[in-house]
Design a protein that fits this description.
alpha/beta; Rossmann fold; 2 domains; 19% strand; globular
């Protein structure tokens, strides 16, 4: 007999090599528990056909009424027969799309230039067209989707921001002073081009070497990633070694310490590089939770444009808006407190808040 208050989350990931995915799935499922659901997770470590088959067999055998499936990306097409069976069984199916397909397609196109592998991935993208979403009751997206994937799916698609565990990080300490001779920035993440940290570096170069500035700007970058060497080369080229610090991968205690000593954080400033203008950036939610204001670009479903602590800049290569943030910081910093920033996160950004928006 099917349980009306039972929810099953199906996914393929490796919790050792993909801790961020594991954390998100665990948080999502805990939110379901807090909303009265009996929940289970079934996952396999690799996106191989045998792993997908194991997920699909679990899908049709479970007695859970509500099933959430993390997108299998280019393997979604293999799930269609099993999804149809599950719908005939009366199950309610949600597809959790971590990255909009148009962003994934753009990344494939940009990073696999001229190769047979690029052609194969692009072909698979089109074969895994909008029809692979049609068997679902709802499709959960965290960023704007392209018209191709939305064909026949607009009514079933809902847009959420990434949820965050409210116990993940405490309110930062006030180990900073203002006014100060330096405006201290911090950026944390798995460094990729879509973070746009190079925009900050170029703006910092123009600002710090200008005449009659009120204060200089320093930028601390915490994390590793495939774009890190590009940033280091840019810093060397612009002779900014004393203004940009690369700290590498650090633990949460060190990151909290850095937040507590910084005036302003940097969210993703290169969304245009993955063809996005709307995205629920996870790092922005962490910044909000610890109570540090941050620079961001594009739109976010969880942050109204009028919030003073989310300082919006253009979603393109220009640095003019970033320079304006540097210039006006000493005027806007008194319009909010760290506690107000954190309270916004507590009220609006939890996994529980996001789960309720699904409407199951």
């Amino acid at each position: 007999m099917r349980s009306a208050k039972k929810l099953l989350y199906l996914a393929t990931y490796n919790q050792n090599t993909e801790p961020g995915v594991h954390f998100k799935v665990q948080g999502f499922v805990q939110a379901a528990r807090n909303n009265g659901f009996n929940t289970e997770i079934f996952h396999r470590p690799q996106k191989q056909l045998k792993s997908i088959l194991a997920l699909m067999l679990t899908l049709i055998k479970t007695d859970a009424k509500f099933i959430i499936i993390r997108s299998l990306n280019l393997s979604n097409i293999y799930a269609i027969p099993f999804l149809v069976i599950a719908r005939l069984q009366g199950k309610y199916l949600c597809l959790d799309v971590a990255t909009p397909r148009k962003a994934a397609f753009h990344e494939i196109y940009e990073k696999r230039r001229g190769s047979f592998k690029k052609f194969t991935f692009v072909l698979m993208h089109y074969l895994n067209g909008p029809w692979t979403m049609w068997p679902y009751n709802k499709v959960i997206q965290y960023g704007e989707e392209g018209a191709y994937s939305l064909f026949g799916n607009r009514k079933r698609t809902i847009y959420l921001g990434n949820g965050i565990d409210l116990n993940r990080m405490p309110l930062r300490k006030k180990n900073y002073v203002w006014p100060d001779k330096y405006l201290n920035l911090v950026g944390v993440g798995n460094i990729s081009d879509y973070h746009g940290f190079d925009r900050i570096i170029r703006a910092l170069y123009q600002w710090n070497f200008a005449d009659e500035i009120k204060y200089k700007v320093k930028f601390t970058i915490i994390g590793e990633g495939d774009y890190l060497e590009v940033l280091k080369d840019l810093v060397t080229k612009l002779n900014l070694e004393k203004f940009v610090c690369f700290e590498g991968q650090r633990d949460s205690d060190y990151i909290i310490k850095s937040y507590s000593e910084s005036h302003l954080a940097v969210s993703s400033l290169g969304l245009f590089r993955i063809n996005l203008n709307v995205s629920g950036v996870l790092k922005a939610r962490e910044y909000c939770l610890v109570g540090i204001p941050f620079i961001a670009c594009g739109k976010d479903v969880d942050f109204p444009t009028e919030l003073p602590f989310r300082m919006i800049v253009s979603n393109d290569e220009s640095i003019d808006d970033i320079l304006k943030v540097f210039e006006k910081f000493d005027r806007v910093t008194n319009t909010f407190t760290d506690e107000e920033i954190r309270n916004y996160a507590l009220s609006n950004l939890s996994f529980e808040t996001q789960f309720k928006k699904i409407g199951i």
